[in-house]
Amino acid sequence: MLFVDFFNSVLNTSFSYEELPFTTETIKVGKGTSITKYGQVEDSLYFMNKGIVEMTIKSYMTEKIIDFFFENELFCGYTSFLDQRPTDVQITTLTDSEMEIIKRKDLMRAYEFSANANKFGRIATEHGYIRKSNREKDLLTKTAEERYVEMFQTRSQHISHIPVNKIAKYLGIHPESLSRIRKKISS
Q1: Element housing 19 (H / E)
Q2: Domains in the chain, ordered, with CATH?
């Protein structure tokens, strides 16, 4: 799916790229590329055409994985994108990736004249909030095994592309614990 298809599916419209209220730029980046670095002010919103990225945050002496983003998903250092302060997250590609970029200045300009841009921004923000809220609820109410099973059920085609130690870090457990969970599930 391309961004224009995503935009149209969210708004139930049939725009072409030329009719979008803002421009997008397609880029291809290699595995291990930092899209957003710690301390950077986020100036872009990204839509993943192909690939996987991880979002990390520093915690004391370690780095924690907040989330993974896959094909057909929007992502960015959202707090920094909104308040234009340096971000406390880093976004890095885990695979070779292709994504479309929407510059913040273009989106903000589109908000001034386009009801469709405003509606899209509102819906995208609502979806981001729901995603974060569900993640927080899962961390508070589900075991690591339950979270892994859910991740496996919803993202099985992507899990093989994510190193086991990163999945364990995302779940908040040691790789050995994840190995035991995987062994138990496959039995």
Answers
A1: none
A2: 3-141 (2.60.120.10), 143-187 (no CATH)
